[in-house]
């Protein structure tokens, strides 16, 4: 009877050790998941900042495009006016 009780207690102790190892493994996995979540959150935050910067750059590019169009039109108007005045001087 003592042998069966002793072996039974050994099996219970072995199972408890395995359960403790499983709990430790689960705790490590949870720590890794928490770290991955923090990394994901930081990456998402950086992407939001880059998106805001990209929106600002897009606005500046649109403003610059309008300014270049106005300068281009003024250049051609000035060129036509100069050509017209030269032509008017030559015909006189």
Describe, in plain words, how this protein is organized in 3D.
With 92 residues, this protein is mostly helical. It contains 1 helix and no strands. The protein starts with a helix and ends with a helix. The longest helix is centred in the middle third of the chain and has 90 residues.
Topology readout:
Elements: H1 2-91
Please work out how many helical segments DSSP would assign. 1
How far from one another are the termini?
Answer: 135 Å
Global structural class: mainly alpha
Element-level helix/strand string: H
Shape: rod-shaped
Largest sheet: none
Mean pLDDT: 94
Query: How many beta-strand segments?
Result: 0
Percent helix range? over 70%
CA radius of gyration is 39 Å
Task: Give descriptors for this structure.
mainly alpha, 1 helix
Give me a quick take on this structure.
This protein is mainly α. The protein has one helix at 2-91. The longest helix has 90 residues, at 2-91.
């Amino acid at each position: 009877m003592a042998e069966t009780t002793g072996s039974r207690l050994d099996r219970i102790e072995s199972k408890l050790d395995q359960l403790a190892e499983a709990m430790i493994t689960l705790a490590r996995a949870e720590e890794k998941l928490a770290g991955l979540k923090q990394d994901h959150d930081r990456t998402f935050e950086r992407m939001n900042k880059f998106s805001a910067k990209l929106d600002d750059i897009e606005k500046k590019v649109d403003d610059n495009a309008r300014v270049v169009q106005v300068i281009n039109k003024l250049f051609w108007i000035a060129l036509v006016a100069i050509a017209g005045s030269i032509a008017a001087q030559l015909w006189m």
